[in-house]
Design a protein that fits this description.
Largest sheet: 4 strands, mixed
Number of helices: 1
Shape: globular
Structural class: mainly beta
Distance between the termini: 15 Å
Strand order of the largest sheet: 3-2-9-10
Helix content: under 10%
Strand content: 35-45%
Radius of gyration: 14 Å
Length: 117
Amino acid sequence: MGYLTTHVLDTAKGVPAKGIRILLYSVSGNSHRKIAEAVTNDDGRTDAPILPEGKFKTGTYELIFFAGDYLRETGQGGDEPLFLDQVPIRFGMSDGEAHYHVPLLLSPYGYSTYRGS
């Protein structure tokens, strides 16, 4: 069975991003349904898959990373409003047997993601 994991790296400081709140939504058209919530640990990862085996379904999803809180707490926030506050990543999962890994590489003024392993 498939499952979904994520993690956050602070690329400005070169460290895992601890304490970032993450929400996971199932997306259908303009409808969003929250299905999971987690917080990153000392390693910048969630303690368990954010969408574990048994709950995994193919479809379109969106992760929302509450990066602004982390950036403020680490002294990287800058002036309000922050350039990056909530970072959404919308993606599709089409293989019901795969491990999907969607990380966030974060700095105060930019971010990137990729399908990891």
